Amino acid sequence: KFPLSDQDKEKINEMIKYLHDSQIEELADKYDLRPGMGLSAVQIGWLKRIYVVVHEYEPGKFNNYILINPRMISNSEEKIYVNREVEGIVPRFARVTMEAYDVDGNLFRVRGREELAVVFQHELDHLNGILFFDRIDKLNPFKNSDIYRAI
User: Is the pTM of this model over 0.85?
Assistant: First the structure.
């Protein structure tokens, strides 16, 4: 609901600070932070449909995204997966367009590609109670890895 309370805005700012600092190696080491690009409110026990993404688009340069009541309004046909050490792949759309509200209650759209698209989808899953391993095919964990592009 809008307007957001000062407490809500402060929590959002704390989430952004955590994600920013977690991506700077010396700060992550100093404060024992787990590196991350996205964080949903539900991950910290805050039951709101909010997530933030801090994307390092160039070394030391970050874009902050705050998505309130987000929804995916379009996606590419192409699918990708993050090549990481898990027993299976999590298929994701290579490009997505999200619609959400900003902290002032204004509706906006943002398009994500590749890594940013994956984070937008991953955090939306958290808001919907879905964990990444829920998306791994139980019978064939590497299903379609030969046709999806790894990033």
Answer: yes
